[in-house]
Task: structure prediction
Amino acid sequence: MSEAFRSGFVSLVGKPNVGKSTLANRLVGRKVSITSRKPQTTRHRILAIRTDADTQLILVDTPGLHDAGGRMVNRVINRMARSSLSGVDVILLMINASGWTGVDDLPFELATSQKVPVILVINKVDRLKQKSDLLPLIEESHRRFEFDEIVPVSALSGHNVEALYEVVRARLPVAPKCFPDDQVTDKSARFVVSELIREQLFRQLGQELPYVTAVKIEQYDESDDGIRVHADIWVEKSSHKAIIIGRKGERLKQIGTEARQQIERFVNKHVFLELWVKVRKGWRDDSAALEGLGYSET
Ligand code: GDP
Ligand code: MG
Result:
């Protein structure tokens, strides 16, 4: 007897660095969103889609939540996080196996204020010395809120991720699929390309600099031979521009090479990548500029 087809939207909420992107990639089985040891690399909503014989799970990877500072870019990101929760069928709230912290308060409040089943995902259980360490955390969590289910996982190793998938699946409505089978993400390749360039900025520039840069795809032309991409990297100061370009352009060249290789793996084609660094003062407080970069709300 065949089960009814289930399909629905699942939102993933949790503090920066808790492992949301890693779990999204695990669930979908292909790299669609960007992971990094540094927080907040996912600034956009990303829909990862997993389609099986009887299920289509559409994952909304929320941007890293953080208490908004004055910067418009932060306020916009927090609003996007809230809007990504409306209309979903299931919410996954993720915390670390090391326990609840103050930084979990905002995601907790967001997740539990919706009228939707909330599943608590306890991540990074691979870091626990012994499994029994989990029991007090599970009890404490039950006291905090009536979670529909509490599922410990390791997004990194994949431990228990398929069990989580089954738990989520059972809560999706019986409905036909929304997207064709081969669609892994509804974000355009253009967007993924800009995220892959951003990822290289995070990997190759230390400290704070990546947070004050943005990537804008100026040209994206696909042909049989390959893809030609021209991207601008925006910075706020010419001193930042000098750091990114590096001595004799070496650092920018390295960023471009690594990014190109990542993009080629993603699109499976030759890529010709041209990167320019541009100084654009105050772009983070300029709403028109943010909209041009894809930070606008829908
Ligand atoms: P996000 O900010 O919530 O999207 O977090 P990421 O998915 O980018 O993960 C942040 C960091 O935590 C990365 O270095 C991951 O490799 C690491 N990480 C994610 N899941 C696990 C896990 O289950 N175990 C361990 N040990 N590390 C993890
Ligand atoms: Mg992320």
